[in-house]
Design brief:
CATH class: Mainly Beta
Distance between the termini: 90 Å
CATH architecture: Sandwich
Order of helices and strands: HEEEEEEEEEEEEEEEEEEEHEEE
Largest sheet: 8 strands, mixed
Helix content: under 10%
CATH topology: Immunoglobulin-like
Number of strands: 22
Oligomer: single chain
Shape: elongated
Length: 336
């Protein structure tokens, strides 16, 4: 009878707990329900979170120690088991393999970056000979980050007396950039086109919402598109972490085109006014948060008109057959 009485007390004690804990080597764990909040992210079709997103999280112990890493399938959230303690949290969509991380030892040093990318990779050409604006010839050429979201929370506590539900607001951590080139003379002789944008930010610190200071060049492919009126034009999109971290830099857009006969043309266009004009984020004053998140920067759309290329078949059809160097097409561009 005494044994039955003791067993009954034990069952009451176990069923009376607010949540279950797991005993592992002296450490208590709790199951946390993680909810990713995408409110406001449905405003832009090209940035909409969908069910194909997979999520990653770093939990950084506030009192020090190695970070904990978790992966969750789907963009809505899920459950994770976390040791008791207090944590700073950084989350992001991890199916984007363009973005890599370094400085993982702390939340403040966690830095997103992308690997180097050949300047003419989309054209399958030798990038070492590709012409570039002289002022940025030493910039590294790197991959665009793609659609990239991050979410952060500070000082989330896991204990017997705290909420077991974490809501993490997500925000765009990339800047959308588009280029349209219309009224292109002899566009019918253009077989491939690509672009490169100079002096944009190489990295992003998600926990502090700040941009890295290195400037890089982002190459990206373009398409030849036929409009409803039958007119062909050039269209391209790319993504950036941001264009200027603190001070405004000049930005050059280089248009690379390969004609049907294999001849190659390029043109450098100063697009700094178009990059900087869309209501840039004001420089913070004394005591204000210096963080500049890409989500605070407006989308950038560049319109170029009246660009022209030669007809390679006028006169001698073999005139360009053996040409191996790039030709600079000196033209006046109309920017809108």
């Amino acid at each position: 009878m005494k044994r039955l009485w003791l067993i009954g007390l034990l069952l009451v004690a176990l069923t009376g707990c607010r949540h279950k804990t797991l005993w592992m080597g002296g450490t208590e764990f709790a199951t946390i329900e993680v909810i990713f909040d995408w409110e406001g992210e449905d405003d832009h079709d090209h940035t909409r979170a969908d069910e194909d997103l997979s999520m990653s999280m770093y939990l950084y112990p506030v009192d020090g120690g190695a970070p904990l890493y978790y992966e969750l399938a789907g963009h809505e959230g899920g459950q994770i088991r976390v040791p008791f303690g207090k944590y700073d949290v950084v989350a992001w969509n991890h199916e984007n393999d363009a973005v890599q991380f370094r400085g993982t030892e702390s939340a403040a040093t966690l830095e997103a970056y992308t690997r180097e990318q050949p300047l003419l990779g989309s054209l399958g050409l030798n990038s070492t000979r590709a012409p570039r604006p002289e002022s940025v010839e030493e910039e590294r050429s790197v991959l665009e980050p793609g659609v990239f979201w991050t979410g952060t929370r500070s000082g989330l506590e896991v204990s017997m007396d705290t909420s077991l539900e974490w809501t993490i607001p997500m925000e765009e951590s990339f800047l959308f950039f588009s280029v349209i080139v219309k009224n292109v003379k002899n566009i019918e002789f253009v077989s491939e086109v690509s672009f490169a944008l100079t002096s944009v930010c190489a990295t992003y610190f998600p926990f502090t919402h700040t941009l890295g200071e290195e400037s890089v060049t982002i190459p990206f492919g373009g398409n030849l598109v036929e409009g409803e009126d039958g007119e062909e034009y050039m269209l391209a999109y790319c993504t950036l972490f941001g264009h200027c971290p603190k001070e405004e830099h000049p930005h050059w857009l280089t248009v690379y085109a390969v004609l049907d006969d294999g001849s190659k043309y390029f043109s450098n266009v100063d697009v700094s006014p178009q990059v900087h004009n869309p209501d840039p984020v004001p420089v913070p004053g004394p005591g204000e948060d210096p963080g500049i998140s890409p989500s605070q920067q407006p989308e950038i759309s560049i319109d170029i008109e009246d660009i022209s290329f030669p007809n390679p078949y006028e006169g001698d059809p073999l005139a360009f057959a053996k040409l191996d160097d790039w030709i600079t097409e000196r033209i006046d561009l109309i920017m809108h």
